[in-house]
Amino acid sequence: MISSEVVLSFREYRLLKKIYKNPNSELVLSEPLNRLLTHKLIFNSNPPKYDPCSGKFIAKFPMYKISEDGVMALRTWLKDKIRFHLPLLLSILALIISAIALWRSW
User: Residue 55 — pLDDT band, cuts 50, 70, 90?
Assistant: First the structure.
């Protein structure tokens, strides 16, 4: 999946960043975590193991790592936020400066 197609919410971004900084972190399943798993931005690094003697799966607590697509989504998310907020901030600053200049000229 191309990371530019995935739109992350702020909660998903924070969760992805947490997993990026602390690989193999133990997390409780939640809606943002399920969405990250669905888009294959993270993966379970501790899947259940099959025990041939008992014929059952031994379930372990899931531990998550970030995938390459997840790293790209992190970088893209931050870059998109900078591309939006920096011009917005500069435009507002320019409007304030021009309003002050007009007010002083009267």
Answer: confident
